[in-house]
Amino acid sequence: MSSGTISDKWLVIVNPNAGRKKGKKDWWQIASLLSKYDVSYNVIFTERPRHAIDLTIRGIADGYRKIAAVGGDGTMNEVVNGVFLQTVVPGRSITLGIITVGTGNDWGRMFGIPHDYEGAVRLISLNNTCLSDTGIVDYHTGNGKGKRYFINIAGLGFDAVVVRRTNAQKEKGRNSKAIYFYNLLKSLLFYTHTHTDIVIDGKLVTNQTFTISLGIGKYSGGGMRQTPNAIHDDGLFDITVIKRMRKGEIIWSLRKLYNGTILDHPKIEGHTGKNIIINSQPPIHLEADGETLGHSPIEFNILPSAVNVICKPA
What pTM, to 2 d.p., does this model score? Predict the structure, then answer.
């Protein structure tokens, strides 16, 4: 593609290692479906972690305005970071789609994206779009500071510990909903709580906190609804704070994470806000869209209606 030319094709970024290497093994099937539904595209495969960020930045510079991730929520997170790190066009000039490979489809559930390949490709071919907010989080690391964009859910405290354990096992080739649930139960054996000061749009909320979720989307962890009332384009984070609980009480309440009634629990608070600052003692750790990041002090800000995404027609 010549420099300055805007393409009407999709740039398809494939993570070959997603879903126990299903990204690579199933690509032939996905490619045949893209042809079946007359989706015009060019494809490129990632070769290392964070590669999808670089490929997205380069793709937009080369004139692509429609980008589809073949992978999981982590691959989509990298694409989103590429969209907002590039400086050629505003994020709202870009349309994002996903063809989920593997066990999860948490981000896609919010937009009615089917988990099966044919359903996802058919939806891309319809080119129906919705606007979605995007989050940006500034955090600390052992070496200084970091910044990350995200499009679904960020978790702090216990949630971040579970994600870190799960990601370590994914790197060893283990990946399933059962692995996430196993790590959730195992982490309960040692994790306690953290004193947190959360400032939501200038209002201080102090708690002994077990875990915190900030959602643009509703779903995480393979279908859990940690932020069940989240709306993807309202310009607000939904914030769920689970306060100090006994371990047995936590286990008993897990069903509420799946049926969407988690905010009915007396030890769980729900808030909404645009700017959230979190300090804690000891430091509380962070994940966003399933990617393990750094620790507090942490600041979140929302970018309202920042990007177009393929979604199920109303």
Answer: 0.91
pLDDT value at 2 more than 80: no
CA nearest to 77, candidates 27, 118, 18: 18
Convert the pLDDT of each residue in 239-266 to its tens digit. Answer: 999 998 887 787 788 888 889 999 999 9
Contact yes or no for 45/14 (Cβ under 8 A): yes
Report domain extents, the chain.
10-127, 134-304
What mean pLDDT do residues 205-214 have? 94
- CATH number among 2.60.200.40, 3.10.450.50, 3.40.50.450, 3.30.200.20, domain 134-304: 2.60.200.40
- Convert the pLDDT of each residue in 212-237 to its tens digit: 999 999 998 888 899 999 999 999 99
Give CATH for domain 10-127: 3.40.50.10330
